[in-house]
Amino acid sequence: MTQEALLRVDGLGVRYERAPVVDDVSLSADGGQLLGICGPNGSGKSTLLRAIVGLTPAFAGTVRIAGQPLSRVHEELSYVPQQAAVDPEFPITVREVVATGRLPRRRGLRWLRRDDRDAVEAALTELDLTDLAERGLGELSGGQRQRAFLARALAQRARVLLLDEPFAAVDARAEDDLWGRLGRLAASGALVVVVHHDLGALAEHADRLVLLSRRIVADGRPAEVLTAANLEAAYELPIALRGPERAVRPARAGERAALRWAVSS
Q1: How confident is the model at residue 167 (pLDDT cuts 50, 70, 90)?
Q2: Of residues 186, 137, 133, the one with CA closest to residue 163
Q3: Could you give the strand order of the β-sheet that contains 68-69, starting from the edge strand earlier in sequence?
Q4: What is the pLDDT of residues 7-24, one digit of tens each?
Q5: Which of 38, 113, 127, 226 is the least buried, fewest Cβ under 10 Å from its Cβ?
Q6: Pairing of strands 34-38, 191-195
């Protein structure tokens, strides 16, 4: 019997005011992958993650985790939203943030058990947050805050981790550090799905890319997905491959920031 994919999305569709934002998206992925989702602004990347989690209603399609409806195994999926969607001034400590990751595995609002506390401490240690555990969330830098949210996801010990623009407001050093941690998490057997606008970073770090423009334009290895033809289809811009590194630049300046990367041959 064929083993079910860890994450399977079939025919997912989302509409806002009758306009399709995500249209008939199907994909499947297993643990041990770092899967990147990219595409132009308004292509449905964030909406797709929210629909997979169930935060945005889908008018069509299904989501299954290891063959089970999400409602039965919700604890196996963890979601880290864009940093802009979280109020950093909310009066809560880093340890308390991380501890909320255990709630999907608890029945009712009960005190944390020993295994919950162990999971929280392990996540704080893994993300180098032990010394910051009693600090308020608003006292942290952007990179530290993102590590706290990732630690919350690790404490949940979910098999599928969805991250929406996790590198917003972090510096280059913190971004490199987070990429390394995500890579190690995927290598440990989890499925890590990252929405990111930086195609160069995705090409460097992701095992697989999904190029989205309401529908899936391309799905596969980065070198197979990030081609001029696929980018023209997704961004609706003429793309030119230039120079010895085959750097891609759009002909229209408005989308240039989204295409700062080089396609490897």
Answers
A1: confident
A2: 186
A3: 19-29, 7-16, 60-65, 68-69
A4: 999 999 999 888 889 999
A5: 113
A6: parallel
| Residue type, position 246, single letter | R
Chain segment 185-230, per-residue pLDDT in tens: 999 999 999 999 999 999 999 999 999 999 999 999 999 999 989 9
pLDDT for residue 101 is more than 80: yes
CB atoms within 10 A of CB 66: 17
Which residues on adjacent β-strands are paired with residue 65?
A: 7, 68
Show the tokens assigned to 10: 């079939």
Label residue 109 by pLDDT band (50, 70, 90).
Answer: low
Q: Which 3-state string (H, E, C) describes the chain?
A: CCCCCCEEEEEEEEEECCEEEEEEEEEEECCCCEEEEECCCCCCHHHHHHHHHCCCCCCEEEEEECCEEHHHCHHHEEEECCHHHCCCCCCCEHHHHHHHHHHHHCCCCCCCCHHHHHHHHHHHHHCCCHHHCCCEHHHCCHHHHHHHHHHHHHHHCCCEEEEECCCCCCCHHHHHHHHHHHHHHHHCCCEEEEECCCHHHHHHHCCEEEEEECEEEEEECHHHHCCHHHHHHHHCCCEEEECCCCEEEECCHHHHHHHCCECCC
| pTM (2 d.p.) | 0.85
The residue behind tokens 């979910």 is 158
Cα of 218 vs its chain's centroid, Å: 18
Average pLDDT of the chain is 85
Phi, psi at 228, each rounded to 5°: -60, -40
